[in-house]
Amino acid sequence: MGRRAIRPLAEPASGNAMTTASLFTIGLLGTAFAAMAVAVVSDIRRRIIPDETVGVVAVAGVATRFLQLDVLAVGTSLAAALVLMLALGQLSRFRVFGAGDAKLVAAASLLQPIAAIPSLLLYVALAGLPVALGCIAWNLLPRASAAKIRTVPYGLAILLGALVLNLAEVLR
């Protein structure tokens, strides 16, 4: 019986085959986006982004960095997410941005390489414009004041921005 060589995660079995790391990354991203979708539904219904969904996104993000087999990538991603969380947390203190939104953006930043974080923030901001305009349009419709939207469910913009960034990366 011959011995089979053990291949590292990052090395493809053949020229066109997906690596095990790629498959895990796809699964982790799918899990993260599913958790973000749950957060969006909660944000729209109750204006709360559950910590559990943020935790799932963050763990998936850290795991994708570990799959790069680069300890520096893990450390820099965690440091960038912490800085982002602290900066957005300050906006949350002044009620410019929700605390759940701040946590979700920081967790979503872990899904990206550190160089893509500015692009993520840009896509989230651009996605926030139609979300905010939709809320304004909703409030202009004639109905009882109790049905008015008082805050923007920004979790939707965070999900859309992260999706667009990842789709742009896949299509490249």
Q: List segments where confidence is low: pLDDT < 50 over at least 5 consecutive residues.
A: 4-13
Query: Total number of β-strand segments?
Result: 0
Count of helices? 6
Q: Note the main sheet.
A: none
Key phrases:
elongated, mainly alpha, 172 residues
Summarize the structure.
It contains 6 helices and no strands.
Account of the 3D structure:
By secondary structure, the chain is mostly helical. The protein has one domain. It is built from 6 helices and no strands. The N and C termini lie far apart (44 Å). About 6% of the residues have low confidence.
Detail the topology: elements first, then pairings:
Blueprint: H1 20-46, H2 51-66, H3 71-93, H4 99-109, H5 117-140, H6 155-171
Helix pairs in contact: 1-2, 1-6, 2-4, 3-4, 4-6, 5-6
